[in-house]
Amino acid sequence: MRGVVMTNEECRPFRELLPSYALEALDPDEASLLERHLRICADCRTELEKYQAVSEGFLYAMPHRSPLPRVRARLIASLANEKARTVPVRRSWRLQGVWQWAMGLALVVLLALNVSTLAQLGALQRQQAAVVAQLDASQKALSLVAYPESRTFAVSGQGTGTLVLNSELRSGVLFAWGLEPLDASRTYQIWLFQPDGKRVSGGLFRPEPGQSFVSALMTLPQPLSNFVGLGVTIEPSGGSLGPTGPRVLETQF
After folding, report:
1. Which of these three, 43, 66, 100, is where a domain ends?
2. Residue 170 class from Cβ within 10 Å (0-12 exposed, 13-18 middle, 19+ buried)?
3. DSSP sequence for 127-181
4. H helices, E strands: number in the chain
5. Buried-most residue among 47, 71, 140, 195 (CB within 10 A)?
């Protein structure tokens, strides 16, 4: 297995465990921790091989003898001291893990706040654009109403309204009250009626939620004299080539 390069400071806690590991004197938790490190650190594996070679040399160089009681007691005490020195290391690793977890959690919270802020900013920008567009439409509608030669028609149906058209400017505005709000999949479409029964689209509009009326600007594709009436139907979002939905408003010229 190819090892990764680690600094002496990173390897120091593990290097201190190598002698006891070579003598098989580590407890299972410490041994498991060291073995995971050895799988990725080539330098520590090389160091361990040196300790193992020395320990095996001792085993074969001397005949087997039972240790004296005081030697056994000293070895046990030495192993206990070795274990005591490794405890702060494990605690340090645990504290470091907790700190990394806390930093990760803080980063997630910060990202969530940034996403929420951007979403709110986007919503405010869309609302501002809608208000500006509505104000612009209202100013154009008022100008059209005051313009000479403009004609006014009463509109009725599911709602009520007023239609102002100007043949010279090839434009008009529809003021409507009482129309139900529509979801994003539907829209209101204006139709201009020709004498032969053909319907020509005059534009799309959708009332804003909470508004009691709506004003929709339209452009006349032909002179007003070429049309005999106007109607409004509910169509799929984006409009239709011809009326397909129910008619909600209508007027005759």
Report:
1. 100
2. middle
3. HHHHHHHHHHHHHHHHHHHHSTT-EEEEEEESSEEEEEEETTTTEEEEEEESPPP
4. 5, 8
5. 47
The token pair at 160 is: 């009520």
Span 190-204, average pLDDT: 95
User: CA dist 10 to 3, 7, 20, 81, 88, Å?
Assistant: 14, 5, 19, 22, 15
Is the four-CA dihedral 81, 86, 91, 92 of positive or negative sign?
Answer: positive
- Asked whether residue 36 is assigned to any structural domain, the reply reads yes
Of the candidates 130, 125, 128, 123, which has an alpha carbon nearest to the alpha carbon of residue 205? Answer: 130
> What is the pTM (predicted TM-score) of this model?
0.48
- pLDDT, tens digit, 9 for 90 and up, residues 27-56: 888 889 989 999 999 999 998 888 887 666
Residue 138 lies in a domain: no
Please report whether residue 129 resides in a domain: no
pLDDT tens figures, 115-163:
777 777 777 776 666 556 556 656 666 666 667 788 999 999 988 999 9
Q: Is 179 within 8 Å of 159 (Cβ atoms)?
A: yes
Domains identified in the chain, total number: 2
Take residue 75 and report the two structure tokens written for it: 């070895």
Domain extent, residue 43, equals 8-100
Q: Under a CB-based contact definition with an 8 Å cutoff, are residues 200 and 228 in contact?
A: no
DSSP lists the bridge partners of residue 199 as 193
Domain membership of residue 111 (yes or no) is no
